[in-house]
Amino acid sequence: MPDQYLPPRRDQPDLDEILTQVGRKWRDFKPGSLWVLLVIAALILLWSCWFTVQPEETGIVQRFGKVVRTATPGLHFKWPLGIEKVVLVPTARVLKEEFGFRTTATPVGQRTQYSANQAYKGESLMLSGDLNVIDVQWIIQYRIEGPIRYLFQVRDTRKTIRDITEAVMRRVVGNRIGSDVLTVGRVAISKEAKEEIQKILDSYEAGVRLITVELQDVTPPDTVKPAFNEVNEARQDRERTINQAQEQANREIPKARGVALQSVRNAEGYALERVNQANGETNRFQAILAQYRSAPEVTRQRLYLEAMSGFLPEVKGIYIVDSAQKALVPWLQVESGAKVSVEGRQP
Amino acid sequence: MRTTARGIIIFIVVAAAILISGAIYTLEEGQQAVIVQFGRPVGDTVTEAGLHFKLPFVQEVRRFEKRLLVWDGDPNQIPTKGREFIWVDTTARWRIVDARKFLESVATEAGAQSRLNDIIDSVVRDQVSSSELIELVRSSSWQAPEEQAMEEVTQEREEELKKEITRGREEITRTILAEARKIIPQYGIELVDVRIKRLDYVESVREKVYARMISERKRIAAQFRSEGEGRSAEILGDMEKELRQIRSTAYRQVQEIQGKADAEATRVYGEVFNRDPEFYAFLRTLELYKDGTNKNSVLILTTDSDFYRYLKQTNPGGGKHGPAKALATGDLGQ
């Protein structure tokens, strides 16, 4: 869990407290209790002779202002009376800086609350390479690697880290087009930024090791957001329209293929039928013809009469007209709708 | 007597204490000191932290930072070469390298800050005003985005995106640093780094940029939609073409198959019926009559028709081929 920045803690006895204590003792014991006073003074001296270093901290011991040693976590002794003093630096803790937003509260077991105040927009709004404005929120995490350098090489190291991070992030984002930053470029951006920030901080000997640079929300500015969404919608629309057309094509073409095949098969059926019929009819004819040739005259008459006897009983009426009669219609009321068969020459 | 002796001892002790406290001083890590004697710096700058000695009363200690210091300028509104007004917020890092000179020329950090303000602001102004905005935003490693990324970019912007970056932000900041450094050493200051922290459109320009971005997006959205409709029409057109192809091919095949079959049938008929066309015609005519009549039909026979002739003639062997001829040649009505 990365922590917010903590200023180095100074492990010094509170002077005011000691003075009031001494004053109280003086009143209580009066000159007669000088020994008691001496004992108390010795105790106070002794008390300022040790200090503890927490597990995540490193103690820097300065004697008359000069760094003489560092102290690992645990109990340590030092010279009293301001001869030696200790500065505790949280070296093992992962520190975090936020840009464009602030974490306001992290209640245990609940959702973390963020404040994306307009006041932080100044940090997050930047120009992309295509001169569009883009809202980039990001964090960095770092550890104090060299506490001595951290304290004594750079004054206000935290501000330096923030300034450099902002400058680098803007340069990196400015070197890409906006849509790239919004989508695929995120990982590359944080990697590039991290390397560059680290390089600059190393050149300052800030004693800081960057752990990560992470882009958080990367969005177009609020005013432009709806327009960006519209582009996304339009892209979806495009796909949808294409899919619909494709759907229709997929629905109709296979069916048309089937129907086409059907008509071809039908034709093939027709062909088979036609040829078979022809063969059948001709075979029949051939058979009859063979017999006919043996007795043509009789067969011909027989066939003629058979046919006549076949259809004569079915007709409604028979008219026998003299062949010299020219105009038949004037005197014969041929019923409308009745089929007229004329045998012999056309009257 | 004893009391005066005691008084003298106490006086000596106190005087010694004052003397010693005036003669020693401590220097914190990260600090440097200049010893000043009656207002004039003497000796070398003390840079080593720890306990040091000096002459009491006549010498005093001036402590200065040895660490890297922050200079943070006010954001400035500066027009670029292309006449766009932008906010430029620069930050710099500096340190006191020559404490004595520093003491003589600017005396305090506040003094140094104000000198730095003058110098850096003016250099930044010069550099920004003589640079195009894209040079300030992009770096020398700028590469025009690939075609795929250009999908959302309009034509004119594409031209601009492909412009070569001659200087880029790093080069401009390097120049700013170099220019500012030329003036600064006389103050005992080393300017370590200058960086453009923020670069932003001024409010009125920003609104216009937003409006431009919105209109750009709308254009792209319209293009996408139109592309969709275009592709859709294309697909439907392709579909129509394919449908017609399928149908017409099928029609052609049908015609060919049927034609072939008809031809075959015709050939067979022709070949066989040709053996006795006259008999075929006779047979077909009979069939026609058989199929063509029904209950409502009326048969009109002329007296010279074959059928009637058979009825009339007692000797049917009169004309050998007469009846057949009559049937074959007689026109079949209407």
State the separation between the terminal residues of chain B, measured CA to CA: 180 Å
CATH superfamily of the largest domain in chain A: Band 7 domain
Category from helices, strands and their pairing of chain A: alpha+beta
Beta content of chain B: 15-25%
Can you give a write-up of this model?
The complex is a heterodimer of chains A (347) and B (334). With 347 residues, chain A is an alpha+beta fold. Chain A has helices at 15-29, 34-47, 121-124, 147-152, 157-174, 178-182, 186-204, 225-294, 296-311, and strands spanning 9-10, 50-53, 58-63, 66-71, 74-77, 84-89, 95-99, 102-105, 113-115, 125-127, 133-144, 208-219, 317-321, 340-343. The model of chain A has no long low-confidence stretch (mean pLDDT 82). Chain B has 334 residues and is an alpha+beta fold. Chain B folds into three domains: 2-64, no CATH class; 69-201, Band 7 domain (Tetrahydropterin Synthase, Chain A, 2-Layer Sandwich); 277-329, no CATH class. In chain B, the strands form three sheets. In chain B, strands 6, 7, 8 and 9 form a four-stranded antiparallel sheet that branches. In chain B, strands 3-2-5 form a three-stranded antiparallel sheet, covered by helices on one side. In chain B, a hairpin with a 2-residue loop joins β2 (31-37) and β3 (40-46). At the A-B interface, β10, α4, α5, α7 and α8 of A face β6, α4, α5, β9 and α7 of B. β13 (317-321) of chain A pairs parallel with β10 (298-302) of chain B.
Supply the key terms.
heterodimer; A: 347 residues; alpha+beta; Tetrahydropterin Synthase, Chain A; 3 domains; 4-stranded antiparallel sheet; 9 helices; 48% helix; rod-shaped; B: 334 residues; 3-stranded antiparallel sheet; 10 helices; 54% helix; 20% strand; disordered C terminus
Short description:
The complex is a heterodimer of chains A (347) and B (334). Chain A has nine helices and 14 strands. By secondary structure, chain A is α+β, with helices and mostly antiparallel strands.
